[in-house]
Amino acid sequence: MVPTVRKLLMPLAVATALSGLASSAVAGGFAIGTQSGSGTGNAFAGGAAGADDASVAWYNPAAMTLIPGKQVAGALHVLKPSFKFENNGSTSPAGTGEGGDGGDWAYVPNAFFTMAINPNMSFGLALNVPFGLTTEYDAGWRGQFTALKSEIKTVNINPSIAYKLNNTVSIGGGLSVQMIEAELSNSAGGAGISTLKADDMGYGYNLGIMIQASPSTRIGAHYRSKIKYELEGTVAFSVATAGNGDVKADLEVPDSLSISAFHTLSPNWELMGDITWTGWSSVERLQVIRTSGAGSGTTLTTLQFNWDDTWRYSVGANYKMNPQTKLRFGVALDKTPTNDVDRTARLPDQDRTWLAFGVQYKPSKAGILDFGYAHEFIDDAKINNSQGAAGQLTGTFKNKADIFSVQYAHTF
Q: Which DSSP state fits 140?
């Protein structure tokens, strides 16, 4: 960790936590799929080829050369995931009940800024929450030895530069400074409730290219690197406090590659599409090691993931009703990295299909207001986890999610 940078980001993370802006995964794995209010209505189709507003600083910095002057955009996403367990043969002598709804309301903010330095060069900044997870189940439920509370929060700062090579091609790149906080709790039997808390700072980069293939067609590609964390924190037991101590764990969030297209079909219709690959196979396991006390150097617990790389496919369309109003539509298929063998109640993820719509309104020449809504139809997620002496957790999670977004962008 770099102490100076960490001191700068820590207030942001604390402010996020105190204001209730919790994270809740609404994309494959524990990614946050909602990173701009304008993109929600299109199910984020055409993200790397878009040029609507300053959110391109995140989706493809090369597109910043298409945003004139200075622009700032702020978005708030209200997320409502639902994870409801249905028992099917569990053997849980130390727990009863289905745990209630593991999902809850969450609020995710984003902010973006772009500025044309000269006709060929632009600067941008993204402040957002790219990864997150919150699931929490009722105390004493039949899966309490697997999971009670699971929470991951991130805060990302991503400055970037774009350069226009010619009238056809622009390139861009940036650096990510990302802080992560994690909290995992579960029943530990006679030792009480075990609560793990850890955090770290990580660094990555992103690269993009934008090609104006014709006056009506843009093609964009964007790569975002992995970020490696060396988490450090503590474990605390509510009863057997002699087991409290320091811990560490390595975690690597995945890289991704998006290829997108945007086409103006007519004065009123715009079409877009996107294919995104995410390297979730880098998330194999989370091994928590004790770093203090008599058991220093031993493994406290291991969470097996064995995730696979995923593909996300989306298509969308815009209809311009008039110069001030645009209607947005989109659908997406978002594959899960999880599998039926290793999936746990901490993240009962499955394949999801997005159905989205939105509206953009320009209240003035300088202002752009976007509203978006998406519903995620999520496949049933099977669970079959051993809880050791506490039995087997076997059943199915019935999941769904709703996303509400609002964004305002202003050009100066």
A: T
Under 8 Å CB-to-CB from 4, ≥6 apart: which residues?
Answer: none
CB 272 within 8 A of CB 260: yes
Q: Is 100 left (phi over 0), alpha (psi -120 to 50) or beta?
A: left
Instruction: Let me know: does 57 contact 126? Beta carbons within 8 Å.
Output: yes
Place of tokens 């609020």: 107
CATH 2.40.160.60 is held by the domain 3-411: yes
DSSP codes joined into one string, 220-259: EEEEE--EEEEEEEEEEESS-GGG-EEEEEEEEEPPEEEE
**How far apart (Å, rounded) are the C-alpha atoms in residues 330 and 403?**
13
Instruction: Name the amino acid, one letter, at 140.
Output: G
Q: What is the per-residue pLDDT across 356-408, written as a single tens digit (0 to 9) for each? A: 999 999 999 999 999 999 999 999 999 998 888 888 999 999 999 999 999 99
Q: Taking all residues of the chain, what is their mean pLDDT, rounded to a whole number?
A: 92
Number of other CB atoms surrounding residue 144 within 10 Å: 27
Tell me the residue type at 64: M
> What's the pLDDT band for 2 if we cut at 50, 70, 90?
very low
pTM (whole model) above 0.90: yes
Domain boundaries, the chain: 3-411
Q: Which of 128, 130, 181, 132 is nearest to 159 (CA)?
A: 128
Residue 11 pLDDT grade (very low, low, confident, very high; cuts 50, 70, 90): very low
- Quick one: tokens of 97? 């009940």
Gyration radius from the chain CA atoms: 22
Task: Name which of 409, 404, 402 is nearest 378 in CA terms.
Answer: 402
| CB half-sphere exposure, 47, CA atoms < 13 A | 30
